Amino acid sequence: MVKVIIYAGLSIPFDEAKEILDSSENVEVIYKRPIQRGDLSQALKEHPDIIGIIDGVFHQSSAVGHKEILNVMKSGIQVFGASSMGALRASELDTLGMTGIGYVYEQYASSEVDSDDDVAVMLDSETLEPLSEPLINMKYVFTNAVAENIITNEEKDELLSIAKKTFYPKRNYAQTLSQSSLDSETKGKLIDFIRTSPDIKKEDAKELLAQIKNISQ
């Protein structure tokens, strides 16, 4: 029996995550709320074979530490990271054995982004529902919008500048667009594009879960 512990709930809700990776005859999957400092020492007591870190706390409590992850890996546990805190820590520890997955991880690993503010969001502490938009998602969408000739590179830079200057709990598309100089027609086209664009943090989370499913069965 392979035991898997996944820290999630924000980038991807637990019910959606279980549609991809759930307990079966050969695998026991335990889902936990976003990881924080000290959680991994408790996880060791459960003797997992694989740990997947998707979401974690940044500002509400102390974030999971590098030494905690290294200690887990030294005990022989495979650790994967994606989407949010997992992507950030994987980019810092990939040369030491942590496996990073997805777009957000690649952005950190390539130094395209270097701040935890890029993935930070305001959340409902009870439901874990995100109440703001992560900057990494906005960058992904606006970059694709340039590729689709919906906005120019200059307009993308303006939008991202506005978003970066906004405190992360208040960051969202509506607020960013309202402060921009985009004309009404361009705003309308961009809004339509945003509505049909994937949530890249969720897509990365799905990729991590699928990869763990493949190696655990």
- What sequence of helices (H) and strands (E) makes up the elements? EHEHEHEHEHHHHHH
What's the domain count? 2
CATH architecture title of the largest domain: 3-Layer(aba) Sandwich
Q: What's the main sheet like?
A: 5 strands, parallel
State the low-pLDDT regions, or none.
none
Which band does the percent of strand residues land in? 5-15%
Mean pLDDT: 94
Broad structural category: alpha/beta
Shape: elongated
Molecular structure report:
The chain is α/β, with parallel strands linked by helices. The chain has helices at residues 14-20, 39-44, 66-74, 85-93, 102-109, 135-147, 153-165, 173-179, 184-196, 200-216, and strands at residues 2-7, 27-32, 50-53, 78-82, 99-101. Strands 2-1-3-4-5 form a five-stranded parallel beta sheet, sandwiched between helices.
Map the helices and strands:
Layout: E1 2-7, H1 14-20, E2 27-32, H2 39-44, E3 50-53, H3 66-74, E4 78-82, H4 85-93, E5 99-101, H5 102-109, H6 135-147, H7 153-165, H8 173-179, H9 184-196, H10 200-216
Parallel strand pairs: 1-2, 1-3, 3-4, 4-5
Provide key terms for this protein:
Rossmann fold; 2 domains; 5 strands; 5-stranded parallel sheet; alpha/beta; elongated; 11% strand; single chain; 217 residues; 10 helices
Question: What is the compact description of this entry?
Answer:
This protein is an alpha/beta fold and 217 residues long.
